[in-house]
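tool_call: predict_structure(chain=1)
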Amino acid sequence: MNKIVKKEYLSENVVKLEVEAPLIAKSRKAGHFVIVKVGKHGERIPLTIASADKEKGTITLVIQVVGKSSKKICALNEGEYITDLVGPLGKATHIENFGTVVCACGGVGTAPMLPIVEAMKAAGNKVITVLAARTKELIILEKEMRALSDEVIVMTDDGSYGKKGLVTNGVEEVIQREKVDLCVTIGPAIMMKFVSLLTAKYNVPTVASLNTIMVDGTGMCGACRITVGGKTKFVCVDGPEFDAHQVDFDEMLMRLSAYKDVE
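tool_result:
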């Protein structure tokens, strides 16, 4: 069991939890995720590690309330425990000095992007972060992103904060004014699809961190399978990051909607 040492609401339905997990904090890298479970018969939920503190032995998770299980996790308070927490899982983000890197994130996708921005900047890249959400209230971790990025562009669907438009508008603005060597995108699947279509048009290499349905996280169940470059891959062990221009996003979106009626 893992104790929650700090809880903070980033917005009405988004919670940040700092959790005791010394071994994971020591070994995790940007891009890694964990699987958590609340209660003996709880659902297994994959969550990307937003940050880690080796000295304190804690990791930070950001969770959006979207269903019964995420609601149970977000209802926990400081001093209470997550029943099971396994990780770090998946492959770490490939970090090197690419040049200029655009990090495009939407909604709670900002949380898993944070360690990637930090690592890319530490590797000597110029990092331009595009934060996007439907409204101002849903923009999260802006202060932290500004501290780590060379530039932050904020986009909101309704124009209530930053610039009015979609994440793709912000990404295209950067591409049209300067050479971009890599784009990294994290967010809703439909968002990543359109970021990928945009960057393909400009021949900008793009990496997407995928958020498929996942059960065991070890490649055994096959629930997270996707098609990349015509081949079957498993997000939990082969990813979660893939060449976005090779991902069959339409298939992924179809599989993500399989349990919509049940949800």
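agent: The two ends are 27 Å apart (CA to CA). Proceeding to next step.
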